[in-house]
Amino acid sequence: MQINITHRPGNSAAKVSLEAGESITAEGGAMIAMSGHMQVETTTHKKDQGSILGAIKRLVTGESLFLNHFTPAGGPGEVYFGTALSGDMMEYNLNGPGIMVQSGSYVASSPSVDMDIQWQGFGKALFSGESMFLIRLSGQGPVILNSFGAVYPIQVNGEYIVDTGHIVAFEETLNYEVSKAGKSWLSSILGGEGLVCKFHGQGTVWCQSHNAGSFGASLGPNLKPR
């Protein structure tokens, strides 16, 4: 399997080249184009392992109900994946600790990568304004994620603070807590920063340059009613 991300960072697409018998699993609706002899199998979980529980777990994260599994028949093939919002994509090779992915950032992964859902708890989800669930990816193999705007890594060694709406993913070696950005709630609200995630430990956080929630809030008042 070869992954090539093109047209970065504003309009990225991921070209995945597969040998005969190789497969890649992708979020429903992520495919842009594919070879004519590509076979597609649709399930609610891993290939050949669809289940009602898997479907429910995916629904609560805000992801698509279905996953598509692409396999070329009779020879090599290729498939292109795109992003829902204009932005970048990244490839990450799992070979150790898992990563936690925010809802909407998962695009595709090798079938050898396991996907599960982790409950954040009411407190973290309610006060961060994000989903109550995170996608946990573990195992071995490549993963493709997307971002709104550019995506870049931040190496954490101790403590680091990131705005909740700018998180794409982070290594599960990190602990985090939701807190106010300023010294007081008033300064946090008036300063426009609101709530942030304070990461502790050692690991990587991947951030996106744009915040989808802020973008939607600024765009909404300018939309004319139908």
Describe, in short, the structure shown:
This protein has 226 residues and is mainly beta.
Structure characterization notes:
With 226 residues, the protein is mainly beta. It is built from 4 helices and 16 strands. The protein has helices at residues 52-61, 122-128, 185-190, 212-219; strands at residues 2-6, 13-18, 24-27, 31-34, 38-43, 67-72, 77-82, 89-95, 99-101, 106-109, 113-119, 133-146, 151-163, 167-171, 175-180, 195-208. The strands form 2 sheets. Strands 3, 5, 6, 8, 9, 10, 11, 12, 13, 14, 15 and 16 form a 12-stranded antiparallel beta sheet that branches. A 4-stranded antiparallel beta sheet has the order 1-2-7-4, with no helix packed on it. β1 and β2 form a beta hairpin. The longest helix is centred in the first third of the chain and has 10 residues, at 52-61. Mean pLDDT is 81; it is low at 122-131.
Task: Present the secondary structure layout.
Blueprint (H helix, E strand, L loop, with lengths): L1 E5 L6 E6 L5 E4 L3 E4 L3 E6 L8 H10 L5 E6 L4 E6 L6 E7 L3 E3 L4 E4 L3 E7 L2 H7 L4 E14 L4 E13 L3 E5 L3 E6 L4 H6 L4 E14 L3 H8 L7
Antiparallel strand pairs: 1-2, 2-7, 3-6, 3-10, 4-7, 5-6, 8-12, 9-12, 9-14, 10-12, 11-12, 13-16, 14-16, 15-16
